[in-house]
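Quick board copy: two proteins, each given as sequence then tokens.
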Amino acid sequence: MLTLRCITKTRQFLSPLSITTTNFFLPSSSSFSSYNSSNSNSNSPFVHSIVRGDELQAKDVVLSFKHWFKSRNNELLDRIFEILVGGGGGGRGQETISSRQSADLALSLLGLRLSEALVLEVLNYGKKDVLSCLKFFDWAGRQVGFHHTRATFNAIFKILSRAKLMSLMLDFLDSYMKRRFTHRVRFYNTLVMGYAVAGKPEVALQLFGRMRFQGVDLDGFAYHVLLNALVEENYFDAVDVVAKQILIRGFESQVTHSILVKNFCKQSQLDKAESALWELVSAGGWGLSGHGVSTLVDALCKRNQFEKAGELLEEFRQLGIVPLDRAYGVWIRDLVQAGKLDGALEFFQRKKSLEGYVPDLFRYNMLICRLLRENRLEDVCDLLIEMKESRISPDEVTMNAALCFFCKAGMVEVALELYNSRAEFGLSPSSMAYNYLINTLCGDGSTDEAYRVLKNSVEQGYFPGKRTFSILADALCREGKFDKMKELVAVALGRNFMPSDSTYDTFISALCRANRVEDGYLIHGELNRLNKVASKYTYFNLIHGFNKSNRGDIAARLLIEMQEKGHSPTRKLYRAVICCLCDMENPEKQFLKLLEMQLSRHEPNFQVYNFFIDGAGHARKPELAREGYEMMVRSGIEPVLSSEILMLQSYLKSEKISDALNFFRDLSKRRKIGKKLCNTMIVGLCKVNKPYLALEILGEMRENQVTPSLECYEELVKILCSNKKYNVVVNLIDDLTNVGRHITSFMGNVLLLHSMKSQDLYWAWLRSRDVQNEASSSWMLGQLIGAFSHPRMNQDIKDLEEAIEQCFPLDLYTYNMLLRRLSMSHMDRACELFNRLCQKGYEPNRWTYDALVHGLFKHGRTAEAKRWLEEMFRKGLDPTERTKLFI
């Protein structure tokens, strides 16, 4: 990528372009020195510009490019095609008799002095606009005093052939004999040339045979058109016959030998082609042309024989008997097409400096476009400079490449101004230029401008590619410009362009986030009418949007629909929809309706019922959960363990403790209660602040020699500490160690947190020592609690870490507590601890930074505190309310 070398506060320029091209952009500038083939940055104009300290405004760049672009203007030719396109000013649309008459009159009023040269110039200027060229050709042929020639016919044939409009060309030839202007042109000559160029050499040969039978012959020009067509279409036997006729009639020329060299190349007889060239050299060079040399060079390159092609070029250069500009151009083109850009640039610059070689406009454009694709922007800039120095008038390809260049170089303001001024120099932006401009404007935050450019491109018949469309759509959605986004989608669909799933998902998601879920639903409806399946995440966004709007009925409908489209909802999505339904009127009716719809889609199974039991439980509707549970039993499905756990959790979440206990006891009467159900009961009772009931169940588990899960112990420790039942906590920890379990980080952190709040936990621990052995596994934890309970914690940091590691694994929460505790009295040690945890690979979070900042403020170290506060803000973290009091 091009390094940004000159950045000012006013953002004068955002790339080396602003410096490298200083002299080029200013109309009064002097020329740069020639391109350094080594491409060394130290010798580039860019470095010299830095030394001089040149600065440019974007307007200077725009003015210089406008001046250059206007140099291509041919007002007469532009006016001719303006008339041909618009029917004399009548606008675009289907041509009518009146519009044709209007165009004829407008062309006549121009007072053109028709000649072969003028017609050829007009056809060459507008060769991409086939219809306009045909109109002009027709008009010219109907003018008194002018008759089309072999050259003008050949020119229009080539235009039709390149545009692959063969049917139109054949129709043209079939109607040829009916036209007024045929009497001055040799009839068969024209037909033979036409069919030959149209890729119908067999018809051309038939006509040739017919005219020979009638005693009529082709002229030299037509003979060579036919010979070339036979080579192009691989009619090699006929080539020899026609070539012999050319020799017999004395029409032999450089063109003849160039075509015969091509004939050998087309048959992969490259040795014969080379021998033919050297025979011409031996004969004094008569018949030898640069076209023949370029044909062989091209054939060698196409077969990846670049070294041999280069040697051939050098040999003919040393001979100096034939111009090689065309061969040089072919060599550069083939190097570029093969990806050998450095070789092409080096050759080009060497030939320019040593031989004064200047490529034609086509070669420049090809090099520039390929370099743009490779993001070699400085090389592009150098070539643009050289084009201007060589007084090469740019065409539309050059101008479009320049627009793309400015976009890639980060100078979107220059590209936009040139685009806005396009009428001044007749620029019609290409689809690539439109894409680059729209993409860059979106990246620059100029979404409205990007949208305007897109509308203009549509009016000109272009529509952006999928990537560009997605970029603009994302930008419009991100900025909440939904009306423009809807218009964009409408235009796309109107042109049979189907935006990608991700674009629709982005649009619908943005509408849902903006609380415009109804609009999102309308877009979704359009997709359905187009038989396009929305993505799974589009359904998720819509459902969540309607849940947020308390429209559970539509959310439920979408839940069923997404399954019909082949998507599988998650348990979380079921839960969200059911919770929303339970907040509506008649929740039981809504709940059962959705359940019945769901069951009608699937064979009844426990998984479906589980989703509904879970959803009702989270909605605090245990009676609905129980209804779903009973329906499962009535349908003949035996509830599995997961169903019973969900049912139990639904009672506990709603704090229906008696119902939960009754359900639990009923289950225990029917069968042996397993560990998972007991764990669920203990954890659920703890979460509703019923620790003693939980302890009873834990005791029953222990009596039955069943070990509770670590989660049971963690929740019990947490709730008992919250209720300051520290004596029970100490006994519980002993029980944990007795069953061979280790204290988890969660439990250890809870104990240390409460020891920091008061010494009650430590005193409870001391009282338990009367019945404890000091060598017990919990004794070390008691010492650690005592250290945290002490007003001044004087232990060494490493000793504390080691002590904690002997009791439970440290995590970031542990370090945060330790940091908070140390910052109360030992700020330097707290800073040391912060560095240690970073070195160990922990990523500090909000609480880590807050503990450090709060401690620094509290100890009067304000400057340090503010530095760390800025670090917090850079990471997007906010201090706590207690720390904000110091700010």
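And the next:
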Amino acid sequence: MVAGLALATLTAPGSAVAAPDHTAPGSTAASQGYPDRKLTFDRTATYPVFQNRPAGEDPATATVAEISAVSPNGRTLVYTDAAARRIGFLDIGRPDQPRGLGTLSLAQLGDAEDEPTSVAVVGRYVLVVVNTSASYTAPSGRLDVIELATRQRVRSIDLGGQPDSIAISHDERYAAIAIENERDEDATPPGGRKGDLPQAPAGFVQLIDLDGKTTPQRWKLRTVALTAPDGRALPMLAAAGITEPTDPEPEYVSINGRNQLAVTLQENNGVVLVDVPTGRITRAFSAGTASVSGIDTGKDGRIELTGSITDVPREPDAVAWINDRYLATANEGDWRGGTRGWSVFDSRTGQVAWDAGNTFERLAVRYGLHNNDRAAKKGTEPEGVAVAEYHGVRYAFVGSERSNFVAVYDLTRPTAPVLRQVLPTTNGPEGLLPIPSRDLLAVSSETDDASVGVRASVSLYRLGADRTGFPSIVSADDASGAPIGWGALGALSAVPGQPQQLYSVTDAAYTPTRILTVDTRHSPAVVADATTVTDAAGTPVGYDAEGIFARPQGGFWLAVEGAQGSENRLIRLNGNGRTEQTVPLPAQVAAGLGKQGFEGVTASTGRDGREIVWAVLQREVATDPAGIVRIGRYDVTADSWSWFGYRLEGTTVPGDWIGLSEITVVGDRLAVIERDKLNGPAAAVKRIYTVPLPTGPTAAGPLTVLPKTLAVDVLPALQATNGWTQEKLEGLTVGGDGQVYAITDNDGVLDATGETVLLRLGTYRKVFGQR
């Protein structure tokens, strides 16, 4: 995590900006987005739930983990898998080695289309709420009570509608279930627009008296209607300004220590409070609107925190009581709203006591997790919120569905939350499950995409580590006070004359291209500055820059990949990022390339002052032997290319390929990154090899294949983060401080978890065995 950071000034290309430096705990750094070290959760494991599938099932079958619960001893985790119509069980007795315990198919308990929507554990029973609806107009559902030890159903209770979430009271005397009876987004109500409310039948809440937890057959169901018997609005809801009180659509439920129930009406932008013992509605209030500025509102490949939204309904999804007075909401939004943050409400007044404003979205930007693809919609989409107390301190955990992180806040003062930490997740974190009895937090992620190898998972985090693996890199503020936007860092270069600085460059995930200065004095490292790349006329330009080299003579070389072979080229920039020279590939080489061309660039200067540029192609040229890729030597003075061969490792995994991703000079050798396209538990080849540095050009004829030597297998270092092992190990350099650095490309948070891993692999001598 970012450990106690203050501000210092760094010198880098372009304008100087403020960048964090170390300060003592208790500083004001947390208010600037850099938490101090009073809390440290560290990720211990990431368990892909497809590994817990039934025997014989195709591993590519969609399987997810949405909402989770835990046994009273904190050792068995139960999760819902709506995609596969089942619930799953994990042994988390060892948080660093979770183990699949199999699944229970709802087809065995009802119908093959029955969908679990939430789960809870009471004593020795698992309570699974199940959507059995045949249609939007005929919603139905049930509660299955399953004995945890035997996985046998001991009772099934008809809920009378389509359920969404379930909550258990602290004293375990009550359960509350939101019966949403959700709207059909494709239906048009009379006088309304497509997807509008109202759409009958109306939702309500079911309460269950648990009768001491031990005898499910004696449990009693009570209904809390949120509309009048004739379907009209309840006066209390109408007076509160609920959007459409005749169709409340309750979404999420939470019960406080006084057995007060809070229910969010997401589409209706409201909250209803219920006294659970009596079933009486005690208050209803609107979640209100918010105007937020300083956010990214354009899906245009630019991270620009200059946009704003005005008077947008919060439309809260998850809700959690902070104490018996204040409650927190995750304002994901639905059809009309979403304010990209979370709020604290005073239940006594229904008023906002605190609101995150733009700070939640700016966390995504600072930590390199911003998803520009969602900028024009609801941004980070904070969907989940949970509150729990660890060692006398109460914390809020807020999950971003679209940027794949959970932010952790200290709630010592409920009306003034303090950011403590940001935790990376896999895609679509849905369920947030604090397990304070074991100092654990479990996060279940619902997005599963076997086609790109990023699968739904359960991630575990433990409180108490001295240091954490994430983040390894964050950004400082720019001159306007906003965090520098960054991502897709697939290249590295040392900064001449600055031993503790590196350069990186953004690729086609963003436009225009920017050169980023990374300060490695800090842990995590800090993106301290950004320089926009321009064409020869000075106009900002978007290159698919896959490699960068900072020339000792000044300026840069970029290796630019193209959608087709002829678009691959070397670009020489001056020190301000202006394009000064373009070097195309030879036509016969370009003709044999597909979309995977240039991936890295470096340069060397001989004793005669002659500059030689070295570049790698990621995949084979069509006319070359299979498994042989090219390393190019470009003589700047002679304006001539010559080529050498490099033999790739093999792969037998269907759909996989292996290629080169980077090149850098290390003494009398060239170091390259060789990798496969696999991630997660399938990742196998993430290596750095060296080859002899050719002393001159080659004659025409067959490629001379350079002998390679393994320098370091990087896979163990990537796996040591205990997260989803990243696919794109793409940047490598030796810094002026003598350290070897490598970095992963997060693909701009598209088809990837979005996590960036900056590795410090050791000294130049240790890694490459050279002085």
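Board note added afterward: Confidence is low (pLDDT under 50) at residues 1-32.
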